[in-house]
Structure formats: structure tokens, C-alpha cells
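Q: Given only this backbone (335 positions), what sequence would you predict?
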């Protein structure tokens, strides 16, 4: 599989007329989101990364948005091979660095600012170092995909009891299956491309995604109710091939690292904007939106977390310590 990625990337490079000399001064940046800085967190992050690097150095940045070089798993593999120097990915990171999956523990983060404190602090630095050792990819910064929320077309959800008997489309990831089962719903793994049809035909009653994804893909037109429970905070990882990073001069490394930090912040800001705007838009278009109280959210957490944590401890083995390290970091941020 890796050899296929290498062949594709080299073919693309020759197609673009890149010589070996030019390649050394060129940073290819790839992601799967649209190339729209106002509506896409990864799109915004990639554009500002390009502007800073090109404005402060003689390096050139070429951005490949919208999955032009492949899906997230393929982008991670390309970065590990050094064929695409910088990639912006979310869920794919935990597949090569399992410890990163602890960030998906439901109801771990009470707010985006808590998540930022944790990821930009000692925990985030330690996780980045660990993933570097595991993958050869250096995490330059963390962006944001956003909090995921439940929608359905049957009834308002204010408690786990309201989820009983409802079928929810989930990503084909065991952690999400465990979470929905813990909440009393019936998880149904379905591919993203099949989701609209599954909702339209009643194969599933509901689904879960960030608000921006729900609105931008018209899912609110197929669902009547949304509960802003924010069950999972999804982070973006802005990573670079460490072999490439180490080949840069110290001044270039500083510029690339700075550009990534700004890019992560930009992505977070765009995501926050999309969430706030998205909630208003779905309401204006007829969707009923409910914001649970602190007590109601605790009930969701009490039902969802135990099964997921037990699953992760079994999957992570020696790396299960990252669950406790994350708990400690969140506690320090919120106390």
C-alpha cells in the first residue's frame, strides 16, 4: 500500500514539474476539507500556514485540499513516507498513534477552552512526543474539528432514557459503538456517503456530527431535533514528516512551527464561528435545538464513559496510562 502511495505522489510531483532541487524547497500541505477559508477549518488553517511560510522564508507551500491526494489514512501514510510534508488530519491519527484515541472519550471536555488548555499544555506536548516516537510524525499544533452532537427525527433528547430504542448512525469505529450502546441507543455503523439515504429511508433515526458538518451537508433538513450534548471533542492534528523537519535550517524550522501554531488557532476560530452560525441557521430553518443542563450532561457522561474507558483500557494495554493522564490534565484545567 505504501509503495502505491509513493508511486502516486511521485507521479503527481513530476506532473507538476517539480525537480529534486525544487522539491527540497517545497512543502506540500494536504487535507480533506474544502479549500474555503471562511467555511472550512482545515482550509483556513492551510491557507494561513502557506501565507506565513512564504511570507517569512524562501520556501514554497503548495496546498492540496478536498482529498486531492487521498483520504486521511492515505495522507498520514504519505507523510510517514515523506512524500507529502505536512498533513492536517483528525481521526486518522489515532490509527497510527493509538494513545491519541483517548481524546475521543465522551464528555471528557466541558468546553472548547478546556480542550485548548489541555492540548496546548503539558499533556498535549507529551502526547505529541509520544506520537512522534510511534509514527515519525511531529505534531506541530492542534486544530479543531469541533464537538459532536446527536440529531434525530423522532423526539427531543434530554436524557439517556430518551435515546432508548433509537437507531443512530455512527462511524465504523468501536469507540462510538460502545458510546451509543452505553447511552441506550442502537448504534448502526454506516459509511458517511450512505448517511443521507439512511436518514431519508428510516434505516436509522439519527446520527451525530459537529454542527457545521450537519448544516453544511444539509442533514438538518432530514432531522427534526438536535441536542447540543457535545459528546466528543474532535481535534485536528497538524503534523509534519520529522525527517523533513530535521532537514530544515533552524530558522526555517522556527517559521514552520510558528505557522502551524497560528494555523491551528485559525482553524479553531473558524470552527467556533461555523458552530455558532450553524446553530442559528438550523433553528431558522425549523430544527428544534436543545442545550442540556449541567446535571443532564452528567447523566450522559455517567452512562457513556464507563463502557468506552473499559474498551480503551483493553485496546491500549500499556498505553492505557494516557487515559489517567488526560483525566488529570482536564482536572487541572477545570479546578
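A: Predicted residues:
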Amino acid at each position: 500500500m505504501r509503495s502505491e502511495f509513493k508511486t502516486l505522489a511521485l507521479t503527481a510531483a513530476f506532473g507538476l514539474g517539480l525537480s529534486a532541487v525544487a522539491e527540497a524547497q517545497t512543502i506540500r500541505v494536504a487535507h480533506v476539507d474544502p479549500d474555503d477559508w471562511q467555511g472550512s477549518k482545515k482550509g483556513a488553517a492551510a491557507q494561513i500556514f502557506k501565507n506565513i511560510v512564504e511570507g517569512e522564508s524562501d520556501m514554497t507551500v503548495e496546498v492540496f485540499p478536498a482529498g486531492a491526494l487521498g483520504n486521511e489514512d492515505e495522507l498520514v501514510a504519505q507523510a510517514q513516507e515523506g512524500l507529502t510534508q505536512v498533513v492536517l488530519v483528525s481521526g486518522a491519527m489515532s490509527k497510527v498513534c493509538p494513545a491519541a484515541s483517548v481524546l475521543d472519550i465522551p464528555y471528557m471536555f466541558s468546553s472548547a477552552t478546556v480542550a485548548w488548555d489541555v492540548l496546548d499544555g503539558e499533556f498535549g506536548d507529551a502526547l505529541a512526543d509520544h506520537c512522534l516516537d510511534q509514527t515519525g510524525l511531529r505534531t506541530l499544533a492542534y486544530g479543531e474539528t469541533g464537538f459532536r452532537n446527536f440529531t434525530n427525527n423522532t423526539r427531543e433528547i434530554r436524557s439517556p432514557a430518551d435515546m432508548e430504542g433509537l437507531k443512530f448512525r455512527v462511524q465504523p469505529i468501536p469507540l462510538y459503538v460502545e458510546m451509543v450502546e452505553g447511552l441506550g441507543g442502537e448504534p448502526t455503523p454506516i459509511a458517511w456517503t450512505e448517511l443521507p439515504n439512511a436518514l431519508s429511508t428510516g434505516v436509522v433515526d439519527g446520527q451525530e456530527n459537529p454542527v457545521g458538518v450537519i448544516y453544511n451537508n444539509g442533514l438538518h433538513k432530514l432531522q427534526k431535533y438536535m441536542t447540543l450534548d457535545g459528546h466528543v471533542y474532535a481535534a485536528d492534528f497538524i503534523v509534519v514528516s520529522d525527517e523533513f523537519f530535521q532537514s530544515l535550517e533552524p530558522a526555517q524550522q522556527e517559521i514552520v512551527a510558528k505557522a502551524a501554531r497560528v494555523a491551528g488557532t485559525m482553524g479553531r476560530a473558524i470552527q467556533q464561528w461555523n458552530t455558532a452560525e450553524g446553530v442559528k441557521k438550523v433553528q431558522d430553518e425549523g430544527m428544534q435545538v436543545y442545550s442540556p443542563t449541567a446535571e443532564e450532561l452528567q447523566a450522559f457522561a455517567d452512562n457513556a464513559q464507563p463502557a468506552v474507558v473499559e474498551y480503551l483500557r483493553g485496546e491500549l494495554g500499556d498505553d492505557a496510562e494516557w487515559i489517567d493522564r488526560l483525566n488529570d490534565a482536564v482536572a487541572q484545567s477545570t479546578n
